[in-house]
Amino acid sequence: MLKKVRITTQVVFFLLFLWLFWETRSKGGDELAYPVKIFLDADPLIFILTSLASMRIDGFPYLVIPVILLTLFLGRVFCGWVCPLGTLHNFVGIFNKIKVAYRPVGWYWLKYALLFFLAVAALFSLNLSGIFDPLSLIIRSFAVSIYPALVNTMRSFFGSAGLGGVASEPRLFFRESVLIGAFFFLILSLNLLERRFWCRYLCPLGALLGLLSRYSFLRREISEGCNACGRCEVLCQGGRMKTECLACGDCDDACAKRSIHFLFGRPVEGVEIDLGRRRIVGAVTAGIIVPPVLKLSPVGNPASVDERLIRPPGALEEREFVKRCIKCGECMKVCITNGLQPTFLEGGVVGIWTPILVPRIGYCEYRCTLCGQVCPTGAIRRLNLEEKKRTKIGVAVIDRGKCLPYAYGIPCIVCEEVCPTPKKAIWLEVTELNLRDGKKVILKRPHVDPHLCVGCGICEAKCPILGSPAIYVISTGESRSKERQFLLDS
Predict the structure, then answer these.
(1) CA proximity to 131, closest of 144, 141, 146
(2) pLDDT tens, residue by residue, 53-87
(3) What is the dihedral of CA 115, 329, 394, 359, to 10 degrees?
(4) Within 13 Å and on the Cβ side, how many CA atoms surround 473?
């Protein structure tokens, strides 16, 4: 019965996750009803590490507290009953035909060492929680890799079949989708070596919940009727240690002697994990050394911002942004033009997979505020529509060596036509040009008003010049940084 209830609960929460993920998209309005960040809001690891890295707490953790209380009372039931990535591990583990007997210690210490490393690194302003946190990992992988692949496949299928609907939708494209997808499938494939390999040995959230469940009231007891057949050890998803048990019920279901019982308030049978003093010291030392090392080079220093590193509107100043961004990919999923892309090294090593606007792929819609609505950590502030219209994420620059009216005497006013600001940030200068054959042509040459330009990038996206455009956006002048203004005040 316990196993059946657990499987039902897993299916319900996984379907809830998929539904919230699907609903995290624009439906033509200004507000999202149910963003998938609800799962991230309940993640104690993200809350703790982000608060340590930024040295501030934004909002009361309403959903984190129930998860912590549930863990203190029932143990790691979140991992075994709720976590959508854990459910996927369960499913892939079905195909594992290798009968691995239970190891009392094995590599369990790895995830605790990773947790200590992440905590110490966060104290030194390096927030890596989003790379390893299971909820951030699965949302990023679905948003940037799995979902685009499914949409594009369906689009191609229905298009070849001559059907409308999905075929008319724009193709989704993310620059780092292959790398992020490969990382995700590598983690899932580890289940073919050992069931729930990630949950047992690598998941830092599981380590945190394991520490919290050390004195949980729900305990597992093995009675004297046990004949040590080992079936429970082969099927165990977690471990006999009190910090590793997921209360999945597999052991109870497999026991022919009915010797396993889940009770409240009874001592648990099993052994403790020996983390080892050297391992803890090594993890803490790495957490101290790694943050400054990653910031030594100009590439790894957030202060040395590339002019093409254009963050979403509402993003915090770069140093604070990389402390709070957990690389979950929700802002990229919800971007209606597909313009938000994951960085690789454009923002330094510390900023890998954080969002960057690539106008040549998609511009920032002038009346859209969705990215701030889905950000779970406040790295992107939630703006109302009027604030969004006043927020500068950069300024457009004209390359006169490529611009048709300047370089070739060919009329073109596309950038001025698409500029969305109420008073056009791109204005036209009417000039007369003598061509080589002696003919005269009246041209309208574009100029950018840096006071009005908000850096949305629609001019770059629509520029008819192939390859590198004749007008492009740089992050200089962005509202979030006083030190990076385009014009200096007297």
Answers:
(1) 141
(2) 998 887 777 899 999 999 988 888 899 899 999 99
(3) 140
(4) 36
